[in-house]
Amino acid sequence: MANCNPRLIPPYGGNLVNLLVSKEEHAQLLERAKNLPSLRLTPRLLCDIELLATGAFSPLDRFIGESDYTRVLEEMRLTNGLLFPLPVALSVKENDISTGDEIALRSPKNEIVAIMKVEEKFERDISREAALICGTTDPRHPVVAEMLSWGRFCLSGPLRVLNTPRHYNFTEFYRTPAEVREWLKSAGYSRAVAFQTRGLIYQTEEETIKKMVKETGGALVLQGVADPTRPGEIDIFTRLRTYKLLAEKYYDRKRTILNFLPLATRLARVREILWYAIIQRNYGCDHLLLADAACINGLDTESERFFAPVEIEEFFTEHSNEIGVKVLLYKRPPRGAMRPEVAAIIANAYPPRHQQGFCLWFTGLPCAGKSTIAEIVTLMLQEYGRKVTFLDGDVVRTHLSKGLGFTKEDRDTNVLRIGFVASEIVRHNGVVVCAAVSPYRAARNQVRNMVGKDRFVEIFVDTPLDVCEKRDTKGLYARARMGKIRGLTGIDDPYEVPVAPEIILKTTDCSPEENARKVILYLIEKKFLPEKPDKQTSKAAAVYHPAITIKN
Ligand SMILES: Nc1ncnc2c1ncn2[C@@H]1O[C@H](COP(=O)(O)OS(=O)(=O)O)[C@@H](OP(=O)(O)O)[C@H]1O
Ligand SMILES: Nc1ncnc2c1ncn2[C@@H]1O[C@H](COP(=O)(O)OP(=O)(O)O)[C@@H](O)[C@H]1O
Asked: What residues make up the catalytic site (predicted)?
């Protein structure tokens, strides 16, 4: 229940850390920072410094020093005895920074973030750290894979934070712990429940959350984790849009505050959850609502390979009492339906397959028939109402790749340029048809990765050299045979035949139109096109993303 004289749980360790310099000092320190040696922070470290600066990691007031680092790894405690499960450390590869140096920490975009006085420099044993916090050194674990690229030195020392990263979208939802606490107090709450998520909230889960929050009598702090998207996940902006919609429309506004939390997760199993409990306490929450599945994150979120639920409960009861945050575990209900507006946001971002972008990549010898077939396919696709861009190697070489020749290097540059444009078109759900000799396998595969493996259709126009030579539409083969030109693909330059193209077209026994129809049939079979040009199935149920289930 809201009360008139609320006293929220105090920050962990007693005080909310604030590393931001005062307005008065800002200009002068900024000038000083410009002349200091700089260190560029990774996106992960940028998240960390933001949370350090605003006190979300209180009592930490700096990147961790060596004695704290060691004790945190071994005993989950800081040297002052406080439980703290994960090291927030500043890794560097550079060995030219020494103790006593003053350095400027900059964002990945080179903006000045903070000044740090280096008081400690120590070595970090990444493998041991991975084993202790993630429970594995297996590089299939996404964070372990990333850790292996971290520098082996750590720096620690006092920080004067000049600017936290500016959030240009959803600006008003990136709140500091002090701001959330202020809201809770002014709304009259002495109790607050954090629900921290980086998944989609289905209606069943939304209702479970509401019920559990109501039972505590506290407010809900809906913490949408705003960290970089990992492959295979719903993109961050779509997720944040759904949280905003839900908070505004389906949660009691008097009881709920939405916050976007720039937390770079570690996937460190139960240590991670205790860390969340500390963070949430700093935001003023004395309860943390947690789906049981969240406790077993790691290599395989679906399995219970790390901790059985019973162990989790015991573990939390023991440690969360010490942190002062009650962890409310609940069994995640079956997914069921999404709120229609949420489904609409998702459907817009992840349209059904037949509205998604794809790239048709025609490859083959000069005169194989790439352009002829590609042009017909382009016309056929337009009957399906698709917006199609045709990038023909010949034409691209008159503008985008003007000036490039036919050395291996120039050909690769050409192919990658076409690939880059193609990937941008596909990303925005357009269709792109490319026809380039693209003789090198590695470059073609690079394009496949740029576009996305499931959106890339490699079409090998498999015409024998003697047939191409007879066609010789531009007289190139004749000139090559006469020795007038060098490096013609198929004559004295290599063509690496595709190993596993999605489609192979023979042009000696099929007309260009027949081959074009084969491509269209392939696209229908893969659901990139509806069976008939005018048949649209735009129901939300057709949404295509492995992480989504929608029931209507
Ligand atoms: N040495 C050499 N090798 C291959 N092709 C040559 C060469 N010189 C000129 N041409 C003409 O340029 C067209 C190939 O350009 P691409 O951009 O498709 O080539 S590549 O993918 O960069 O290898 C190619 O067009 P297509 O016949 O449409 O394939 C040729 O007409
Ligand atoms: N079955 C076929 N498929 C494609 N092109 C064919 C076929 N039979 C003959 N041709 C002719 O071969 C030539 C191929 O030229 P083009 O499409 O520019 O090839 P590429 O783009 O591979 O260099 C065209 O003149 C086309 O009319």
From this structure: 438
Q: Compute, in angstroms, the gap from residue 367 CA to the centroid of ligand 2.
A: 5
Residue 299's pLDDT is: 34
Q: Closest ligand 1 atom to the C-alpha of 438?
A: 21
Residue 312 confidence (pLDDT) = 66
Domain boundaries, the chain: 23-161, 171-347, 353-536
User: pLDDT per residue over 210-254, tens digit each?
Assistant: 999 999 999 999 999 998 776 667 889 999 999 999 999 999 999
In CATH, the architecture of 23-161 is: Roll (3.10)
Which band of pLDDT confidence, cut at 50, 70 and 90, is reported for residue 292?
A: low
Instruction: Based on the residue annotation, tell me whether 423 is a catalytic residue of this protein.
Output: no
Q: Residue 311 CB: number of other CB atoms within 10 A? A: 13
Cβ within 8 Å of residue 301, ≥6 positions away:
293
Q: Which residues of 77-86 are buried (b: 16+ CB within 10 A; e: fewer)?
A: ebeeebbbbb
ipTM above 0.95, yes or no: yes
Q: Tell me which of 371, 407, 437 to substitute to probe ligand 1's pocket, judged by most ligand atoms within 8 Å of the beta carbon.
A: 437
Task: Look up the CATH number of domain 353-536.
Answer: 3.40.50.300
Q: Which atom of ligand 1 is nearest to the CA of 412?
A: 22
* Mean of pLDDT values over 364-374: 98
Q: Where are the beta strands (DSSP E) in 399-551?
A: 431-435, 456-461, 503-505
CA 447 to ligand 1 center in whole angstroms: 18
Are 23-161 and 353-536 in the same CATH fold? no
